[in-house]
Amino acid sequence: MSESSRRKSLRRKxxxxxxxxxxxxxxxxxxxxxxxxxxxxxxDLDMTSLTSELxxxxxxxxxxxxxxxxxxxxxxxxxxxxDAPGETVDLTLTRRTVHQRDDVGPGPRTAPVxxxxxxxxxxxxxxxxxxxxxxxxxxxxxxAPDSIMWSEYxxxxxxxxxxxxxxRGLPLVAARGRTPQAAPDESGQAPGPLFYFDRADLVESxxxxxxDAIDAEIAKGDEREADFWDxxxxxxxxxxxxxxxxxxxxxxxxxxxxxxxxGDYPLLKSRSFFDDKIAVGQLAxxxxxxxxxxxxxxxxxxxxxTIRSDDAPEDEEKGAGRELTAKKIIDLFAASxxxxxxxxxxxxxxxxxxxxxxxxxxxxxxxxxRFTTDPVEIEAAKRQNAAAFELGVDTNGYxxxxxxxxxxxRRGTGVxxxxxxxxxxxxxxxxxxxxxxxxxxxxxxxxxxxxxxxxAGEMPPRDAYEPQVQAIDAxxxxxxxxxxxxAAAYFTxxxxxxxxxxxxxxxxxxxxxxxxFSLDAYAALLEDRHADEAREVLITACGPxxxxxxxxxxxxxxxxxxxxxxxxxxxxxxxxxxxxxxxELLKALNRADDAKTETDLRPLTTLVESANRDxxxxxATPLVRKTxxxxxSPQADSYRALLEPAYLKALADANDQAYQELASWVKIxxx
Length: 671
What we know:
The chain is 39% helix and 15% strand. It is α+β, with helices and mostly antiparallel strands. Strands 2-5-4-8-7-6 form a 6-stranded antiparallel β-sheet, with no helix packed on it. The longest helix has 34 residues, at 598-631. The two termini are 55 Å apart.
């Protein structure tokens, strides 16, 4: 996935986690909670009605457990959000009987699944929980919550089958305090009054088990990755130089950020590598230090391994640079059956809410949560929150309070549609599942929306948040989550069906119907480095898929593509070719990533053929002349039978191996 660059210091301590910004041709998020909260942009939510659900609360509330029941239909008795601070809003809950379901997942009918909710593992000892009051008339006081210490939570029995919402539409789950003075109920417990807790404060009891399983996969991946990067590092060390095809990120010893132009750069001998990343999104965990100009600079080595740069000119040629009007965006959303029911009105976006900005303006927008072009305000924003400002500089898009901010260099590449999708989302997904899950689901809905534009060549293909998108896709393909359930969660905040579906499907070893895979843990580990491992554990937990096809054999074109890429990769490293030739090969190798036909592959094939001819010329002129001289010498008869076949084969094959063999014979007979 392509990533934007970010200023980094050579003096930053090794092993310190960088402030990461995931960008596509698109936008960024950070792993830091304070910045993530800062990016929430909840003020832009348009909630005209809030719906609530309530199941039967009874004797089944024991040991903080709940039963997975058929979800009731949402009630239509929800009240509007407050218009002014302090205004009271009560959410009316419809009470109804919920029919218990005891067939969990495929296979024979089993006992009901019981899951225990507990506090999030990272809850501090001095943390407090928000407790919302419930009243006899079936309402929840959204305006007057209480706070309790985390230790008091042990005195509550939580029923995950009973849901409500607060005034922001965020999901709550029911709980009863246990009062020793009250008479015991049928379960032997002494129930107290009904309260509600924020679902974001609680996780399934199998959260640690799920996290441990994912962490184990991560450890295996880290071991494989370390071995991979050790080999790449040794490869560069042995080459003694770095070849880059595009302008790439660099940081000087004076801690200045530079763009190093394409070229072949010698490696600094005394200290070859800076053991850290100098750019956000850089895959290699080290940065070679090369001679550049009058000094030295640490650069990203990613382009050496055909990793596309954000600055590759091909993206501009595929549609970048075209500003979009609000009408064009609105029309595309209105034409989508998936989005149409969730649009707040016919003119929900205006031209004055779309801002094409510079890097610094985007940084200021992230801090100020508004648009400004005033240099004084921009500088003040940088001083106010340098971390958020720097994140904005490296961000391709951002939305806040109904406004979309798009970096000028990324206009027309789909950023506008991704950010507009965010604008239509409900806060519950990000609030409960976190930023990575939210970004993956946003991009999951954005791609089908713009598919026709991509197919028509009006914008480049989308590759934003690819690991997170694959993680969402895995919920659909393997856990049986439906598109409608995802849409209900994303657009209306109805998360309960997602929890229920995963708890029904992800029950295979090391999990079970009694201890299913934790969706909360899955969502928490979907950042870039861990998303693939989390996805693998989910797939295992969902068990063998019926009718799963065996891996398809590579087609003839796929074999040709691999062979051509392998040959080109070897030629790129061959310094007998000029730096210009190798740079062109590396660029063509980058572009071949998207090759689907022989025609797409032809530019690379042509360059490979040309490079091989150059190598043949490199060998042929002196070697052929020397061989011809040997074959016409008086002593030729004694070794002609062995030398001449190698000579003729080299002329016919005209490749590196043939000339190497001929050179060996020439060396023997020319002593």
